[in-house]
Design brief:
Blueprint lengths: L2 H29 L2 H8 L4 H15 L2 H13 L5 H14 L2 H6 L9 H4 L3 H18 L3 H27 L6 H10 L2 H15 L2 H12 L6 H14 L2 H6 L5 H31 L11 H19 L3 H11 L4 H5 L13 H28 L6 H29 L5 H36 L6 H26 L3 H4 L2 H24 L6 H31 L5 H9 L4 H13 L20 H33 L4
GO molecular function: sodium:phosphate symporter activity
Subcellular location: Cell membrane
Protein name: Na/Pi cotransporter family protein
């Protein structure tokens, strides 16, 4: 073996790791956020959790990646530590699939169909199919499948290069001397652990061992400790992922490495008994790549069966190894763990969950703010303030996380979901701001003992009912991703706009007739402005949901089409809501005449009317200035 063989060995390992990484990333991308729903549904029993761990690991081709995912889920409070134990055990079994596929390289046959099972024979065909799907596929799903196939072909090509690179080792005396050291089981475990820890892939280290076995120089006694060490070394990735997380989340890698170490100790005891006490001769025989795959599976299955009844004890062990401190119990829960970015589909679903929380908070806060005008409560006002703080926090965290997430490789549905959330979170936060504005209005009216006139209050009840419905429709359509419900929001928003205009006009009439007090003018106008703005934000969210369905975010053109009467469904819904939310029958107020009016009374009435009109205009001017400033801030003016 010369320096070129060494380069070939390193290059083959690089191809192997690259192919596995490509496969893992695109398999996870295609799985998307379904992994989270599976994790939540199937951790109710030990056997379901075992199956789940195995299936997810096979799907993403990495037990380490699953463990890192579990660390993030526990750190975010989505899963409890008890739910992760059997999932980890299942992942240890799922990771053995790669070794079984690689063992096909040892097939020797003149039969065409059997020889085609060898990776070096079928991987070029897999690569060809993958490239055709990437170049000719019209849908992104087909392109992703093609990328997975190419990744698999590169992995197999790397395995072939490694096998060819190590073939001269069988004739080297120096290599035989190194193998003598491997014959010591303790050293074998340590070497397997170190090598796997460096490359952070047990599948790759097992693959290298399988390549070495093709030289015919690796015995069963040498291979078994190396396989045990490889299983311990794969925990390094999980240990590194535990840096910077809560102590509760640190227990996940503690359980993982505990399972591997306990399993290795048990198997080593059995190894010493069978090899050195019983002196079974098969330990000195040569092992094949298939034999390595068999023991890799036997080791993990045996460890699982041995430790499964003691899953609760493993949790207790982790709690003792990583005890919680007082400050840990008081520290706030992490909202979105950055480790979830390693699983973009799962991260999208977690963001969706938190955005739904924002939607519900926005709806509830504005509902409570409106009830303050009926019966003021300081406790409710303080609760609204707390909800607004939570909304601000959620928006900041989600905005930062979603921007980082949008730069990842996402499936089409997930990419649309991220765009939808980025558009919507600001609207939900602004609804919370309007709830605070309404709370301040209610506080001012309560402090000054002011009340709207009976006529105004009757009209506001209709407006409040319409706002209740549009908020419920908006939140429900977002939570269920229901564009059918979202289609009804914009017609109702138009009705609410008309209602606010009518109420404003009626208020001016009452103000001019002297029925309403001038100081209530600004308060009522602010009230109506906040209501109108809330319906606008509901419309923004609903239109975004509809545009996501059409994979387009041309909001203005869509709204123009609706308002130009190009959609019959819109007109029907608008008429239905207008009939449902009609203001009480309006009778224009009559001016009161004073007795003893002289011939100049007409002139006096006109003067009085001008003064009242001036008061109404003065009352509306501050609000107009506020609206203009808000529109400038939003970039509309």
């Amino acid at each position: 073996m010369n320096i070129y063989n060494l380069f070939a060995l390193c290059g083959g390992l690089a191809f192997f790791l690259f192919g596995m990484n490509v496969m893992s990333n695109y398999l996870e991308k295609m799985a998307g956020g379904r992994l989270e729903s599976i994790l939540k549904k199937m951790t109710s029993s030990k056997w379901k959790s075992l199956v789940l761990g195995a299936v997810v690991t096979i799907a993403i081709q990495s037990s380490s990646a699953l463990t890192v995912m579990l660390v993030g889920l526990v750190n975010s409070g989505i899963m409890e530590i008890e739910q992760t134990v059997c999932v980890i055990m299942g992942s240890d079994f799922g990771t053995t699939l790669t070794a079984w596929i690689l063992s096909l390289s040892g097939i020797q046959s003149d039969n065409f169909f059997i020889s085609m099972l060898k990776p070096e024979n079928f991987s070029p065909i897999v690569a060809l199919v993958g490239v055709i799907m990437i170049m000719a596929g019209k849908s992104q799903k087909k392109k992703d499948i093609g990328t997975i196939l190419c990744g698999f072909a590169v992995l197999m090509y790397g395995m072939t290069i490694m096998s060819n690179a190590v073939s001269p080792l069988a004739e080297m005396p120096q290599f035989q001397k190194i193998l003598i050291a491997f014959d010591n089981p303790i050293i074998g475990v340590l070497i397997g652990t170190a090598f796997t820890g460096i490359i952070q892939s047990s599948a790759a280290s097992i693959g290298v061992l399988q390549a070495l076995s093709l030289t015919g120089s690796i015995s069963v006694g040498m291979a078994i400790p190396l396989v045990m060490g490889a299983n311990i070394g794969t925990c390094v990735t999980a240990i590194l992922s535990g840096i910077g997380v809560s102590r509760k989340a640190k227990r996940v890698p503690a359980i993982h490495i505990g399972i591997k170490i306990i399993g290795t100790v048990v198997w080593l005891v059995l190894y010493f008994i069978l090899r050195y006490l019983v002196r079974m001769p098969f330990f000195e025989s040569t092992i094949s790549s298939l034999g390595i795959a068999v023991f890799h599976s036997v080791f993990n299955v045996g460890t699982i069966l041995f430790l499964l009844p003691f899953s609760g004890k493993l949790v207790a062990m982790a709690e003792k190894l990583v005890p919680l401190r007082e400050e840990d119990e008081q520290s706030p829960q992490v909202l979105l763990d950055e480790r979830l970015l390693l699983s973009p589909g799962l991260a999208v679903r977690q963001c969706r969950e938190k955005t739904r929380e924002m939607a519900s908070l926005a709806r509830d806060s504005f509902h409570q703010a409106m009830t303050l005008f009926e019966e003021y409560s300081q406790e409710s006002a303080e609760k609204i303030s707390v909800m607004e703080e939570r909304l601000d926090y959620l928006e900041d965290e989600l905005d930062t996380f979603l921007i980082r997430l949008s730069s990842r490789e996402l499936a089409d549905d997930d990419n649309n979901a991220v765009s939808e959330m980025l558009h919507s979170i600001n609207d939900f936060e602004r609804i919370g701001d309007h709830a605070i504005n309404m709370t301040k209005l209610a506080q001012e009216m309560h402090a000054k003992k002011l009340k709207f006139s009976a006529e105004a209050e009757a009209e506001l009840v209709v407006l409040r009912n319409a706002l209740e419905e549009i908020l419920i429709m908006t939140v429900d359509s977002f939570a269920r991703d229901d564009d059918t419900e979202a289609d009804k929001v914009e017609p109702l928003e138009e009705v609410i706009d008309d209602l606010t205009k009518e109420i404003k006009n009626h208020h001016v009439d009452r103000l001019q007739a002297g029925i309403c007090r001038p100081e209530l003018g600004i308060l009522l106008t602010d009230y109506l402005t906040n209501c109108e703005r809330v319906s606008d934000h509901c419309s923004n969210v609903a239109v975004c949901i509809i545009q996501t369905r059409n994979s387009s975010f041309e909001t203005h053109s869509y709204l123009n089409e609706l308002k130009n009467g190009n959609e019959p469904e819109f007109v029907d819904e608008f008429e239905s809501f207008r009939e449902k939310y009609q203001l009480p029958a309006y009778v224009p107020p009559k001016k009161k005449k004073k007795k003893g009016v002289d011939k100049d009374s007409g002139k006096g009435d006109r003067k009085k009317k001008k003064i009242q009109e001036k008061s109404a205009v003065s009352a509306a001017e501050p609000v107009a200035r506020k609206e203009k400033a808000a529109l400038k801030k939003q970039g509309i003016l």
